[in-house]
Amino acid sequence: MQQPKNTNPDTAHPRHRTVQVPAGRLHCVEQGEGPLVLLVHGFPESWYSWRHQLPALAAAGYRAVALDVRGYGRSSRPAAVEEYRMRALAADNAALVSALGAESAVVVGHDWGANIAAASALLHPEVFRAVGLLSVPYAPPGGPRPTDVFAQLGGKEEFYVSYFQQPGRAEAEVEPDVRGWLAGFYAALSADTMPAQGEPDPHFVSAGGTLRERFPRDRRPGWLTDDVLDVYAGEFERTGLTGALNRYRNMDRDWEDLAELNGATIAQPSFFAGGSRDASTTWMSDAIDAFPATLPGLVSSHLLDGCGHWIQQERPAEVSALLCGWLDEVSRSVRLH
Fold it and tell me: Helices (DSSP H) in the chain: which residue ranges?
């Protein structure tokens, strides 16, 4: 059934709040009323990456809540690397739903948030009734140890995930110039500014080099205005990057923690949207081809032509419309409350 449009002036604008959960505090931004939709960002972002979707979902009759994932923004930033394991982040999501006074929610994630959303749906199916994934396709847990796989990529060059593994190493590159590094990283993965085919791949690091050596230096993506970059840079200049990077430093730990879910499919109604120029969709095209088996509840899947990695910021209106259409379709068959 079509959700009613939001006409309550008290919920028509975004509201910041900090919620206590068993593991600490979670900062989130909420807009609208109706069935709860939890929005989970990726690296290196924050709740702000959903700034376009919050009002769109609210106008469509949903209670949209975008959180700062543990380690980001105003949420808790525990010191221990293992505190950023996938089970902990999924538990944060489930606890947040309860703290917000809801019994269940739809969870939608982008980039690392897509992996966190998928894990949340697998580990807490009673809470998360549907799952949406942006940019990173679902691939069931299992396979070889992740760091072994990453070590084999790139030949003489180092894959960026391997580069992020050692605590302090990437921070030493980023934190002397957070704003400049973020601008380059966003540009490297945006469709209108990414390196051309044949140019050095920004997903790899040369021997003794840095990631930023391969970032575009003379151009900025259309979505990345000074005001937007100021928000992201301001947050990371205040918090540092360690909390965000610790997600990468738990991949082997997750591989062990989630072994009981090896090969697991996601039965809930699901959604995927990615960009045709995003390495996540081209490198993981086999995972997209496998959706009929791995996402048996898949409602719709979309590949946005000419779009890069930052899909909900590069194509905000299109992504918002696709999400609203999917949610309305799901609400006809699943009781969202």
Answer: 53-59, 86-99, 112-123, 146-151, 160-163, 169-174, 178-188, 226-239, 242-245, 251-257, 279-283, 285-289, 291-294, 311-314, 316-333
